[in-house]
Amino acid sequence: MSxxxxxxxxxxxxxxxxxxxTGRLRDVxxxxxxxxxxxxxxxxxxxxxxxxxIRITNDAGLAWYATSARARRGFCWxxxxxxxxxxxxxxxxxxxxxxxxxxxxLKTMGHIFVGEKADFDAITDGLPAFEGSSDGGLPDxxx
Length: 143
Hints:
Blueprint (H helix, E strand, L loop, with lengths): L6 E5 L6 E5 L3 E6 L2 H7 L3 E7 L3 E5 L3 E5 L4 E6 L5 E6 L4 E5 L11 E5 L31
Parallel strand pairs: 3-10
Antiparallel strand pairs: 1-2, 2-5, 3-4, 4-9, 6-7, 7-8, 8-9
């Protein structure tokens, strides 16, 4: 996990959405579910932060889409960049890791929903992999 009171910044491709995260970011989990394949073109690499630590600094292009009864996704309606996964029942928001400004200081910690992964998606890094959700099985997955 990224430690301390660092401010991590990020945003979409065109700049119509910018955000800041104050504090800790969870390391990256690669989501191989069918929904992430559709949204990201392969798997989705997601960090996470407490909702209270995320501040939108430019929301000119921010739009939300309810992808299920459980969560909504934030994206830029100008350039189409995927930015957030926000579950209704958690105090944390998933952040698409590629939307963070570099350097992030994050590492990939594992893979989930590999039972749904695309046939062209080879996982060869030796990190923990779960057929479905990790259900807390990844170290430091909780903030």
